[in-house]
Design brief:
- The protein is an alpha/beta fold and about 200 residues long.
- Helices cover about 30% and strands about 20% of the residues.
- It contains five helices and seven strands.
- Strands 2-1-3-4-5-6-7 form a seven-stranded mixed β-sheet.
- Helix 1 packs across helix 5 and helix 4 crosses helix 5.
- The longest helix is centred in the first third of the chain and has 16 residues.
- It binds inosine 5'-triphosphate and magnesium ion.
- Magnesium ion (MG) binds next to loops.
- Homodimer.
- It catalyses: ITP + H2O = IMP + diphosphate + H(+); XTP + H2O = XMP + diphosphate + H(+); dITP + H2O = dIMP + diphosphate + H(+).
- Its cofactor is Mg(2+).
């Protein structure tokens, strides 16, 4: 199979998707290797934004592309930050800024009402005008902690409590996160599609 461009500027995603694909006969190259700039994520769904990103990378490189649009859905916040997870605390917000805002918004909310889930939509497009993009979705249930714990992973991992492991996703060994995560589940579906 030819090289696939990974349409993301997020190094944490590049690392996880590369680890997950290491066992497959699929070579992915991050879009930064082709100087693909970020594109405005103007959609209101993960699916729309993933298509926007995959189409943009495919158009600029002339190669097939995979994009990942993901985020955190918190029940006590009516689903926020959702598709706006990366810009929750503002356009140029860091992961830490976003976490501070999230914990602030959840102040006083008891443990049993801090339920949340990560979503990951992966889109594969053969070329920029592909009329049938492959769309895969994975989700991962957890709870938002009261403070940051753990150094692994990225984004909201330090405040995402995984009941089954009794750890935050930033405390999980990388292979365990990859096994359980929204991204791991979406990628397992995509790999099945390539195997067809
Ligand atoms: O759009 P690209 O370039 O792919 O990179 P991004 O970081 O902007 O990615 P998104 O637009 O998909 O926003 C995803 C947000 O959700 C967070 N997120 C996604 N997956 C995560 C994970 O596995 N662990 C922690 N946070 C995650 C991430 O930190 C971002 O704030
Ligand atoms: Mg983004």
């Amino acid at each position: 199979m030819s090289t696939i461009v990974l349409a993301t500027g997020n190094k944490g995603k590049v690392k996880e998707l590369s680890e997950l694909l290491a066992a497959e006969q699929i070579t992915i190259v991050p879009q930064s290797d082709f100087q693909v700039p970020d594109v405005p994520e103007t959609g209101t769904t993960f699916v729309e934004n993933a298509i926007i990103k995959a189409r943009h990378a495919a158009k600029i490189t002339g190669k097939p592309a995979i994009a990942d649009d993901s985020g955190l859905e918190v029940d006590a916040l009516n689903g926020a930050p959702g598709v706006y997870s990366a810009r929750y605390a503002g356009e140029d917000a860091s992961d830490h800024d976003n976490i501070v805002k999230l914990l602030e918004q959840l102040k006083g909310v008891p443990a049993e009402k801090r339920t949340a889930r990560f979503h990951c939509v992966l889109v594969y497009m053969r070329h920029s005008e592909d009329p049938t993009p492959v769309i895969c979705h994975g989700s991962w249930e957890g709870q938002i902690t009261l403070e940051k714990q753990g150094e692994q992973g990225f984004g909201y991992d330090p405040v995402f409590w995984v009941e089954q492991q009794q750890l935050t996703s930033a405390q999980l060994p990388r292979e365990v996160k990859n096994q359980l995560s929204h991204r791991g589940q979406a990628l397992a579906q995509l790999v099945k599609h390539f195997g067809k």
